[in-house]
């Protein structure tokens, strides 16, 4: 998407607070073929529904993981699609309720209310722009080209490089993406990369879908 986010993905119940995560970033337009969907689903722990309904995603709209215990990713390298990008810690825009991806399309955002690179469980979420009418191609412009077996290297604030192997590439209508799976703090440790895709609605100035890449520690 462009500098501003495009529509809400969904509302997630988050402890005692509700969290709205936006349709994440700008996108590539042609649909991709899903691969590894069953593998991605198997990495998530089945979580019983919360009392009173709603999502079981264990995050809140204002609480971070324990101070000093989280290792934020600060740089991402994906050789298969020639990506090297800086990562900013981002949260939710309080005014819009949207996932606050960095405005520069050359940079990407780590969802700071979720796990860091040191976590032994859960999904480390990184989202980025594909393109912008003003800035051109973004860091995740070619994300939809990733396939199983490709590698992704995330460098943490501790200076350590951690390598992941892609196991799944999926495309969802933004209204149907299973947020409880991709933003969870439980299940197997994994890296989740998100951008947009599918057809572009010129009237709404937005792409219809999200591209989701799932990778596991190599």
UniProtKB/TrEMBL annotation:
It holds the Pfam family Sortase. InterPro entries: Sortase, Sortase_dom-sf, Sortase_F. Residues 43-70 are annotated as: Disordered. Gene3D superfamilies: Sortase. One of its GO terms (molecular function) is hydrolase activity. Keywords: Hydrolase, Signal. The active site is at residues 129, 196. The keyword Signal applies. The keyword Signal applies. Residues 1-22 form the signal peptide. This is LPXTG-site transpeptidase (Sortase) family protein. It comes from Micromonospora nigra.
